[in-house]
Design brief:
Pfam families: CbiQ. With 250 residues, the protein is mainly alpha-helical. 76% of the residues lie in helices and 3% in strands. It has a two-stranded antiparallel sheet. It has 2 domains: 149 residues, no CATH class; 75 residues, no CATH class.
């Protein structure tokens, strides 16, 4: 999370209006859902990686780290889509060629969709997205919930790292059974701290006259129509290319 927040604030496209990044990424995300995945997915994944690394200047390592967890989840779950199970006459299972094809399409489509979200999170700070959400009329309660959760993620991540370091210094992970005990103790401690932190935050907000909405200063950024139209044109070309390749493959 700290690396994501760091690159979101320090990339080359940091000063762009959030619409210039949100609209193309959102349109590409929609294209991953409606176009044939095997023709459009690799194009969208490659274009998002190029825009993130060579356009915004985010290191490739940071992008791969963001994509690593979803990719690992997809790779582990994909084989189960290729297995056909039947209980009609006992328990039977077999590999299905249609299932393998479905697993491949699902994996490519999901990775392309995740790349759109990775591009947005690595190039746009949350404060910019919140300011844009307010202008678009998103309910204030939902925005405040996102802000509070985002803040608490960093608080508890720091405490989790500190607690794990302390347990490691006390040989809490030298054996598998001790490691499980340490992880359980750390999780229980973080849960108690979460409740305590929530109570402190509620008291602090009430003391500051909280009325249901947190207001922060935001820098107004001018919308660049040339950049926005370039992004939309780029999305259109990718969509057209994916559609043509999909028809050619069918």
């Amino acid at each position: 999370m700290r690396a994501i927040d760091h690159y979101a604030w320090s990339n080359r496209w940091r000063d762009w209006h959030p619409t210039e990044k949100l609209l193309p990424a959102g349109c590409l995300l929609i294209l991953t859902l409606v176009l044939p995945p095997l023709s459009s997915g690799p194009l969208i994944l490659a274009s998002m990686a190029w825009a993130t690394v060579y356009g915004a200047g985010v290191p490739m390592r940071a992008l791969l780290q963001v994509l690593a967890a979803p990719a690992a989840f997809l790779v582990m779950g994909a084989p189960f889509l290729a297995v056909s199970i039947s209980f009609a006459d006992g328990f039977h299972w077999q590999w299905s060629s249609e299932g393998w094809w479905l697993a491949l399409e699902t994996t490519v489509r999901a990775l392309a969709a995740v790349s759109c979200l990775a591009f947005l999170t690595l190039t746009t700070p949350l404060t910019d997205l919140i300011a844009l959400s307010r202008r678009l009329g998103v309910p204030a309660g939902l925005i405040e919930l996102v802000q509070l959760v985002y803040r608490l993620i960093f608080v508890f991540a720091e405490r989790a790292i500190t607690g794990q370091q302390a347990q490691t210094a006390r040989l809490g992970y030298v054996r598998f059974d001790r490691g499980l005990h340490s992880v359980g103790g750390l999780a229980g401690n973080l849960f108690q701290r979460a409740l305590h932190q929530a109570q402190r935050m509620e008291i602090g907000l009430a003391a500051r006259g909280y009325t249901g909405e947190l207001r922060v200063l935001n820098t107004e950024r001018a919308l660049s129509w040339p950049r926005l139209m370039t992004g939309i044109t780029w999305v259109g070309l990718l969509g057209l290319s994916g559609w043509i390749l999909g028809r050619g493959g069918s």
